[in-house]
Amino acid sequence: MKKRETRICMELLVQVWGMDVNGKVFKTPARTVNVTPLGARIAGIKTELHRGSVIGVACGNSQARFRVTWIGHAGTVTAGHIGVQCMEPGKYIWGVALKRNLEQDQVSA
Questions:
Q1: Which end of the chain has fewer CB atoms within 10 angstroms, the N or the C?
Q2: Is residue 2 part of a domain?
Q3: E strands within 20-86?
Q4: Cβ of 32: how many Cβ atoms within 10 Å?
């Protein structure tokens, strides 16, 4: 089992866009619940997405492509939440310094 990066609870306003499960383009405001140097948990997603979908996420003036790695179940407290991992190596859009887990970077490579 690979070691996960430490998640930092942090609410940042973001814009999320891409294609939903029906192939329809969407763009929606959302917010992070927690962030890591390589990903985030995002809340406020009302669009139905597939795990593995590629979406765009913008935070302030920075943006990157992310892969959806987790989707909260409908009817639970995690409904509307998604987990995402950055697909652009070395890209960091959160605008706040976080401690990187270099061991995780080596495992992910």
A1: N
A2: no
A3: 25-36, 39-43, 54-59, 62-71, 82-86
A4: 22
